[in-house]
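Retro notes (design track)

What went well: tokenization of the new backbones is finally stable.
What didn't: we kept losing track of which sequence belonged to which structure.
Fix going forward: every design gets posted as structure first, then sequence, in one message. First example under the new rule, 565 residues:
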């Protein structure tokens, strides 16, 4: 079996093994997972994953929990919480907020989808309507509070994870609203100022807003019960040692929420809070994500053997005879300029390109502006530093477009199959590749050309200097990864080290963009692999740029929020 077939087969095997592992974990003990669609406010389609434990029947209704993700995430982001709740006998609806995942846009509308989600959960005959909990992470906490406000008698307790009352996205609270509240606010949460008005997350115990919510004038003691569960005014604070996005992969944070619901909801199947298996689902979907990348590369290599695409094959030529000063300068600039401009260009994107009918995703607009401005910088610097000594194969646009579409279509089919058979996407933590909903296909096409242009310019510059005569393939890959992803590794370390040392991000006002930057690291690593792999086989930047444009546009458009209908 040749290399392309081995790589292709390995990718499918990894998807199968990872999918089976993830599916086994999330259905352990007889849990069923259903992809549910229902009608929300004003007839808007809503989406969720429904986790049904075997004890939940129409004859024996079980407690229910509505679990809601935060901004620019989706229903699968809550799987750690949802799996553990379902293992404890709770029916769980992991909701897609409005404008997120497969729920209809716009984002932020109709209580973020929270009231509709609670109504749907209460409509199920397998749910005990007197024992319903609400859990929301970050902006999902606002959705949970909106649900509680819309149906004040429709729930029994609430967990706000990395969230708060009285923010830009959530209603105010007091000593009686919401009912039986647990606040899970991590010691290194990046949004301490936004959520609780304190400069450092560890100071949340002194937050005036939290004191009012807990009905006390003294600093709140973590894990101490305030008020009465029986009277509905109970309050408790948990402070796990993680970050805001880290709540999703924290045994401590998930355990805190489990403990609270087991204290406040009746029924279910009691388990120790530390009896958690969700991490193996994350490992499974990570294996599947790695398999997806292998499938892409193997498919591309196999397609090159077909008569239609065989003329593209040409061995990559070395750009440099040695690593001179210019080479090191080019590498440093390739790695550092994108991160040095990151906050500023993302800010320009927010100001210059607000969500509209043509470009309806706010975060995608910011990333697009960042990408295009960096492409412009690369074009200018290319004339000075990135001049290649290698000869390039002639660009074959029709064949390159065809092989890129076929390659990504095979990758998309692998995700379709994983979703159908295993009810998973390809993910680890906040890095998630989802299927595109029908309404996002036109959005995908709108953003495709700008992102593809960025990769074409970036790859042309990269291949103009990266390969040095005599380099083994491994060294070429490492050089490309350093150029495209290395800067983001440095950036994340520089931003987050102060958070763990002193309690502050390096730039506290950029907390959201700091969190978003975490996804750039694995994405740019994957793109580097695609760029080198395709160049080595075609001596052209074009096929890799087209595949990367399709893949990254798909990733971003499917995974972020749509703000305009």
């Amino acid at each position: 079996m040749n290399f392309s077939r081995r790589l292709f087969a390995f990718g499918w095997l990894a998807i199968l093994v990872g999918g089976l592992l993830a599916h086994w974990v999330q259905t352990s003990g007889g849990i069923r997972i259903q992809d549910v669609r229902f009608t929300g406010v004003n007839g808007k389609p809503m989406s969720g994953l429904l986790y049904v434990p075997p004890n939940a029947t129409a004859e024996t209704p079980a407690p229910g929990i509505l679990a809601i993700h935060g901004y620019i995430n989706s229903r699968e982001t809550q799987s750690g919480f949802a799996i553990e709740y379902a293992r404890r006998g709770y029916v769980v609806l992991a909701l897609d907020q409005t404008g997120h995942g497969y729920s209809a846009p716009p984002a932020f509308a109709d209580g973020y989808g929270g009231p509709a989600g609670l109504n749907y959960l209460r409509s199920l005959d397998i749910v005990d309507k007197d024992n319903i909990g609400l859990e929301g992470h970050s902006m999902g906490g606002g959705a949970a509070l909106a649900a509680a406000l819309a149906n004040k008698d429709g729930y029994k307790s609430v967990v706000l994870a990395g969230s708060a009352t009285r923010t830009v996205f959530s209603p105010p609270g007091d000593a009686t609203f919401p009912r039986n509240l647990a606040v899970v606010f991590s010691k290194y949460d990046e949004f301490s100022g936004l959520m609780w008005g304190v400069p450092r997350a560890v100071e949340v115990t002194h937050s005036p807003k939290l004191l009012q919510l807990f009905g006390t004038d003294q600093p709140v003691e973590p894990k101490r019960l305030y008020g009465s569960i029986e009277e509905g005014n109970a309050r408790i604070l948990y402070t796990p040692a993680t970050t805001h996005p880290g709540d999703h992969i924290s045994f401590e944070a998930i355990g805190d929420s489990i403990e609270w619901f087991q204290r406040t909801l009746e029924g279910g199947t009691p388990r120790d809070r530390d009896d958690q298996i969700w991490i193996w689902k994350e490992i499974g979907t990570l294996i599947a994500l790695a398999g997806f990348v292998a499938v892409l590369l193997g498919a591309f290599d196999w397609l090159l053997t077909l008569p239609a695409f065989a003329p593209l094959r040409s061995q990559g030529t070395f750009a440099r005879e040695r690593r001179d000063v210019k080479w090191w300068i080019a590498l440093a600039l390739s790695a550092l300029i994108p991160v040095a401009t990151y906050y500023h260009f993302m800010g320009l994107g927010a100001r210059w390109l607000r969500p509209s009918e043509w470009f309806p995703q706010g975060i995608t607009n910011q990333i697009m502006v960042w990408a295009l401005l960096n492409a412009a910088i690369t074009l200018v610097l290319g004339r000075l530093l990135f001049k290649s000594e290698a000869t390039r194969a002639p660009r074959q646009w029709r064949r390159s477009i065809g092989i890129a579409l076929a390659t990504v279509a095979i990758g998309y089919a692998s995700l379709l199959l994983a979703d159908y058979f295993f009810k998973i996407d390809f993910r680890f933590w906040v890095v998630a590749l989802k299927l595109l909903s029908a309404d996002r296909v036109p959005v995908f096409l709108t953003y495709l050309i700008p992102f593809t242009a960025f990769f074409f310019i970036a790859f042309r510059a990269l291949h103009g200097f990266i390969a040095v005569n005599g380099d083994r393939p491994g060294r070429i890959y490492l050089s490309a990864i350093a150029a495209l992803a290395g800067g983001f590794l440095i950036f994340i370390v520089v931003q987050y080290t102060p958070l763990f040392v002193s309690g502050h991000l390096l730039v506290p006002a950029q907390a959201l963009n700091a969190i978003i930057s975490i996804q750039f690291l694995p994405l740019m690593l994957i793109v580097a692999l695609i760029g080198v792999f395709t160049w080595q086989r075609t001596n052209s930047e074009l096929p890799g740029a087209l595949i990367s444009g399709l893949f990254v546009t798909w990733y971003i458009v499917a995974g972020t929020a749509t703000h305009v209908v």
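Added context from the reviewer: The mean pLDDT is 94.
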